[in-house]
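Human: I'm a chemist; would you kindly supply sequence and structure tokens for a protein?

Assistant:
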Amino acid sequence: MMKRIFTAFLAAALLLTSAACGKKAPAAPTLKEGLTLKSVVDDIGNEIGITMPAEVDESILKDIVGIEPEDVEEITVTDEHTVSFRLSAPNVAFLDYMTMAVLPEHLLAGEDMQTSDFFRAPVGTGPYKLESWDVGQAIVLTKNEDYFKGTPHIDQVIFKIVSDDNAKTLQMAAGELDLALLPPKAARSFADREGYVCYDMKTADYRGILFNFNNPFWQENRDIIPAVCHAIDRQAIIDAVLLGQGVPAYGPLQRNIYNKEDVERYEYSPEKAAEILEAAGCVRGEDGIYRRGGEPLSFVISVGAGDQVRVDMAQAAAQQIRAVGIDCAVEIPTKVDWNSQMSYLIGWGSPFDADDHTYKVFGTGKGANYSGYSNAAVDRYLTQARSSDDPEARAESYARFQEELAKDPAYAFICYIDANYVADASIRGITADTVMGHHGVGIFWNIAEWTK
């Protein structure tokens, strides 16, 4: 009898037989011997040759992989199991960034990397392989009998595409799904039901208000950002929106070994917010809103459509910010406009090397720096941290980075959220103590070991 599972994951619902994702593979400069792609090729060197070709859109390297194109000076295939990268400067996290798929040149040479049919029929060496893809409905994976770590126990995994959280919840309750990532309120409804297991998993995934420093308002009022930070009652938001499933956030490395706890946390304090605003020359009007140079302090938080938890979080934060005298509203645009919006309810975070989701997020002009944030001291310490493999030296650099970021905030950090998974009780092998990544990614890292 075929063993399979259905699951819901973010906007998708999953029926288990799925590919592992989220857990980093061991970093190494050589390919593991004995690996075979499901598409036969004659020369593994050709496979490597397409990995980072010049014609790849630079945004792929910068935004997804975290590598600036100018970081790599040369790529050389040494032999059929070894590839060498010459970097323009030291980067201790580089091997972490290279834990990605090797792309087959014989299938991709001459193809447009953004539109190629290859990405609808990928080949690889993972525990599962693509069987079918019904766009907008489901993705079906079957186990890879030749998986180098051993044949998976579950024969098939089906990712069902379910964009609505209520629909996912109903399908989970009806037994149509085996695993789903649900909002806290929906997940809690399964806590006492027979036949289900709830996994409230820690993540490195934080939420905060990103300020757009390209917007004239923040160019003129950057000095009041600490007041915004003090206006937010983080625990109240966690309790009301997340039902307690999270912790207050004060920086980007709280789930990392290099976190510095004794930095400015901007604890909830309407009194301190008022002090900062008045010290900046702002005067509170009869309507309760502060004015500067005769102009009211007013900004909008944009939130991506489809994430009700973020919407609720933004609305709660906006209400708290208004209470201290800064007019604040929430909008849900049909499309995110990074250049023109005033602020955004952002989500970031990584359980991997500290360089990930810091250098590319807060470094001046880097690929995932969507706020236009620039701080010379932050740039200096992030560069120092990635340039050394000495843990003590890196700890010192990251400590200085966190201090400087706290002095000149890029975000008003709100909270780290838990990932609330609900699973059929018959599934065995899920590791509840694994720290998940952004959007709760990572639960499938050992799926080859799961049973049902």
